Amino acid sequence: MAALLPAEWIKNWEKGGKSEFVQLCRALSENKNHDVGFRDIQQALYELAYHVVRGNLKHDQASNVLGDVIEFREDMPSILADVFCILDIETSCLEEKNKRDHFTQLVLACLYLVSDTVLKERLDPETLESLGLIKQSQQFNQKSVKIKTKLFYKQQKFNLLREENEGYAKLIAELGQDLSGSITSDLILENIKSLIGCFNLDPNRVLDIILEVYECRPEYDDFFVPLIESYMYMCEPQTLCHILGFKFKFYQDPSGETPSSLYRVAAVLLQHNLIDLEDLYVHLLPGDNAIMEEHKREIVEAKQIVRKLTMVVLSSEKTEEKEKEKEKEEEKTEKPPDNQKLGLLEALLKIGDWQHAQSIMDQMPPFYSTSHKAIAVALCQLVHVTIEPLYRRVGVPKGAKGSPISSLPNKRAPKQAESFEELRKEVFNMLCYLGPHLSHDPILFAKVVRLGKAFMKEFQSDGSKQEDKEKMETLFSCLLSITDQVLLPSLSLMDCNACMSEELWGMFKTFPYQYRYRLYGQWKNETYNSHPLLVKVKAQTIDRAKYIMKRLTKENVKPSGRQIGKLSHSNPTILFDYILSQIQKYDNLITPVVDSLKYLTSLNYDVLAYCIIEALANPEKERMKHDDTTISSWLQSLASFCGAVFRKYPIELAGLLQYVANQLKAGKSFDLLILKEVVQKMAGIEITEEMTMEQLEAMTGGEQLKAEGGYFGQIRNTKKSSQRLKDALLDHDLALPLCLLMAQQRNGVVFQEGGEKHLKLVGKLYDQCHDTLVQFGGFLASNLSTEDYIKRVPSIDVLCNEFHTPHDAAFFLSRPMYAHHISSKYDELKKAEKGNKQQHKVHKYITSCELVMAPVHEAVISLHLPKVWDDISPQFYATFWSLTMYDLAVPHSSYDREVNKLKVQMKAIDDNQEMPPNKKKKEKERCTALQDKLLEEEKKQLEHVQRVLQRLKLEKDNWLLAKSTKNETITKFLQLCIFPRCIFSAIDAVYCAHFVELVHQQKTPNFSTLLCYDRVFSDIIYTVASCTENEASRYGRFLCCMLETVTRWHSDRVIYEKECGNYPGFLTILRATGFDGGNKADQLDYENFRHVVHKWHYKLTKASVHCLETGEYTHIRNILIVLTKILPWYPKVLNLGQALERRVHKICQEEKEKRPDLYALAMGYSGQLKSRKPFMIPENEFHHKDPPARNAVPATVQNGPGGAGMPTSLTINTVRLEEGTTEDTDKLKEKSQGVVKVINKTVNATPKVTTSNGNSASNSKIIKEKDDKEKSGKEKDKEKKDKTPAATPEMKALGKDGKDKPKEERANKDEKAREIKEKTPKSDKEKEKVKKEEKASKEEKSKTVVTIIESKSTAEKEREKEPSRERDLAKEMKSKENAKGGEKVPVAGSLKSPVPRSETSESEREQKRRKVDTHSSPSHSSTVKDNLNELKDSSAKHYINHTTPTLSKSKEREVEKKDLDKSRERSREREKKDEKDRKDRKRDHSNSDREVPQDSTKRRKEENGTTGSSKHSKSESPSDSPRLNEKEKEKNKSKSSGKEKGDSIKAEKMEKSSSGSKKESRHDKEKAEKKEKRDSAGGKEEKKHHKSSDKHR
Fold first, then answer.
1. What is the mean pLDDT of residues 756-766?
2. Sorting pLDDT into bands at 50, 70 and 90, what band is 1277?
3. In whole angstroms, how far apart are CA 508 and each of 518, 585, 607, 730, 1087?
4. In the chain, what is the greatest distance between 2 CA atoms, to the nearest angstrom?
């Protein structure tokens, strides 16, 4: 072979040889012919190396060039190693040692090019040792021999059985051949048997090889399974299981991973029952105990995560925590050891062996296996396959293609479901094992839900057989279980999938809400605690919710709302629970939260409704605040959230409404707050007591006017929401039950619920219950169609008698029904005949009314005792209760106001330059349409009202039957009609007042308007005291409207003559006793009417003052509410206003710290009262009063502090009244039948605590004045007594009362005289002394003194309240002293009212005043002014006489000194005689009273001669007359106890001494007197009743 490396290259190596060699190598390595190139390179390298060995080339030069060449080919190092190997052999044979050295040097230089492993393979051990690649060649040789022996010569085990390897080779060839032809397992089995026999193969080893090959060829199940099955007949049964067990054991070391093919083989063998699961299970790792521990550890870890999330971590700790967590995470990421049981389970599921899979799952903790994704996915796949045919048939939505899933190839897989019944067998079971891990397969989730929907459709369609129904029921309960255990938990683990939520709602909405709420409850309270994953999810949701809620404001509602929506798709219960807890704490979150809920799915809205109900029903929450007087703020917040959220979003209401109904059934009314809010927000129907009169007026119009002007908040667009509310009520039949439950619960609040509760809270709950009833009833009336309403509300007698609905509520519910009914009947009749004349229309209307109301008239008879219908007819009763304000009057001003508003709006729209034209047009169109609607509505209402009035005109003659007395009629009317209805609602209050006026205007027979008004105003204490807060407000409105009417009549004679002049309601009887009882009914003239109105004003004042001074929370609160309401019309008289003002001021001072709510009310009223002061007028302008005679000096002296011009007896009586009221009220309650009776009795009862108890300042003055009068008038007294005063309408009452009066009057006059004396001004010191003495005597004597007289100012207030009365009395005294002869006899002037007793006395006083009126005296107005100054001064305790110029000061002083001495003596004597007198008087008086029945009457009548019927009392105030009365009685008593009437000093002493005793004996005397009067009146009283009613007629 020619040399490739010429000698010249070697010689000129550095110059060109090197590069030539490199080029040569490159050329050879690029040669296309691989073999030629390989050999040439070998040769080139060999030659180069040989030159080095021979010494022609240095070894480093060679190594350098080799370094360049080595890169030309991949196998260059190997080629070089071959070259070295050849040279090694050659050089070892040579004798020249230097050549061997050159070789070793070359190899060492090239070590970096060839790896030592390759060199160790190819070079000789000695060479390797010399190169330093091995330590000792000998050892190396030994080691290699051993390895070679082990590899090639050592005998294997099977060979001991004389197996031959060739047999296994043939076996593998046999099993690995192409099996697609006609080769069967039987054929192969025969071959295998032959091989085993021929080559002595081990049968177990053969089985192992068969399994190995099966692992590699899984697609040939049909071949291998029968093969193994047949093969097993030759083995022991356990063999196969052991072999598989050994296989699994092999992979059980920590780093091993069992191949899936092995799992599959095991699974198939299990499925074909070739092995038993129990036998194989023991071979698998990990053990069941280890699995249990792992499961427990997961739960603990989940709880720790929750704890970390809920813990408040400070920032410094946070970083450390995070680092630790990271480390833990890293540790965790290490791969867990292989779980062979789960691997086998997965394989079983994949091939569809559900039975064995199930039994493996049963060995593990619940949901442990499916918490591994692979298993969950495999199980989901199995479910997909199983439900495929049924889903294709019923579940696929219209238009959806879907991707069909092919069934499993193996016949042993679960049977596919064709019907719902088949789902029960396997699918539901599989789903239960999946649990929350269905979340891994949203598509399957959707399929299951759609199948549920299809099932519900079938379930709800009727017409199946009984058996089928039972099956369906079972299936339905299974579906509910699946929903609870699988669908909802899976939704929680899905990542905010809104579509799934909506899909699920498609099925949920077919469930009744009871089932849905049950499911939500389980989901919220139990599901989240059952799986570690869900525990974590719950904690994360709360954490996220906190994050969002912290940042939620009005400004960022949209972004926050989106986050809330996202979070709610998966875990709504947890999120809403947290949101609601925040709302309960912070009510300012309500608006932003409601706005932010717009991104919720339908399912979430439903869950929200459930969460709200659960929050409301929370038993751990207190429904009252700690003070027990108000409803908790959390409940108020939730309620207003309810209202807002139910209005804004389409949430189902049934559950909430049913909850309220259930609470009412249980007798709990707190939750009515929710109903109230929901109705208010959804239907736009507000209930508020703070309505202005304008709003109230608008509420009496049609629906449109109500919506425009009747509410505070213009709640627009309520059409949809109110429709939803209506549907919820009707679908679940809750409309009537809620009404009835509320109506019954009103009393339940007081008598059942109210037990331990604070009175204020009971009132609040009662009001809430009542208001909600009114609001709810209003909603039903305006939203239900006539048919719906009539179908649901039973007749009035059923409502009251069967459902025990209070009458007011029953009529309230029935009223819209009557209105609907009448209007529909009317429309029918109109259609029937086309008569257009107004007369025809009215006639038709009246006919339709009769048709509708006739059954009602029949029905109401059962509501009351038969006796009731003697006075009022059922027709009247039904008419009163069935009409509303809409029927009585058209609120023209309201319509005008709203129309004007719209006009202004339109003008503003025109003027608005910025508004785009199309919007302008729209707005204008809206306004115009509204305006037209309003005008149309007004016209319609006008026609309606005219028709109603026509109807009433025809009915009125049959209204009041008056089979007993007019008095009884009025009592029944007030008791059964007016009072229950006027406190029902604000509109009803107005209605009642209007109705009374209407009955008057219709000139209804047997109706005494005067008596009706008198009864309403005469005593309001009891009515006010028994009202709740809102009722008081309505009662105030009622009084306000009544006063408005009265004030209108009072204001102008022309109006009075026109509206009352010849009306039967103002007919009253003027009885002149002096003639032969000629009873003649007469009209009350204008001036007398003004006196009567003054009397009413006075009575209102007295009642108000009484309530204010009781100290009772309810009395004070209610009277302040009532007073605020009637402020426009009362007080009108200055002195009454001042008296009130002082009492209210006192309340302000006393209650500031104690009861701030009363303080606020009082301050509010006080401010408004002050602003009304300029409009108040002096008494003489309010009703006509002649000024007193100038020459009667003492009369004017009377105007001392607090006594300004008031009849003396009144001053005392006011004081007495204050002291007496509290004791007496209890007795009065028992005795009173009518309101007025009550007041009169109060008055009658009180005066007995007299003079000594009075405010000392005023009393002393009174006494002085009296003394003065006595000096001037003792002789005249007798003459006056003979003189007969005028008879007035009130005279009639004397029949009952006037019998013992003459005696009383005498004593009274003495008393008055003395009081007047005492009243004259004194020096301050003297006054104070007198005060002290009198106070001392007061304390000793009056144990009954009421708190009212604690301070001087209170008495002064009383005095101020009644200054006019003192003034009048003074006038009377003067006039009587001037008049010659004749006895002072009070004149009867009051109306015949239920308690004539008191009023007779009033009339007597009036007559006295009449007589006085003929004389002149300083002008009345000046007295009033002075009076005001005196009031001011008196409160400052400066007593300066402003009034009389007639009495010189020196005289006054003398008189005062005398009086002082006298009063001291008297007080001493009084104390001694006190006890004795009291006993005597009791005895004597009761005896004498019994003895003097008829005589006294006659005597009184004779004494009370009548002078004329026109004169009536001027200041006929509620307390005057009774007090006078009583003073007269006192005089009687003083007579009967043997005192001489002429001797004034004795009389004074007697009275003073008796007054103390009278305090205690007053009730006994009173009773005795009343008895005596009753007896004495005997039959006369009855006659007088009849006569009075005739005369009124």
1. 83
2. very low
3. 12, 32, 11, 21, 78
4. 191
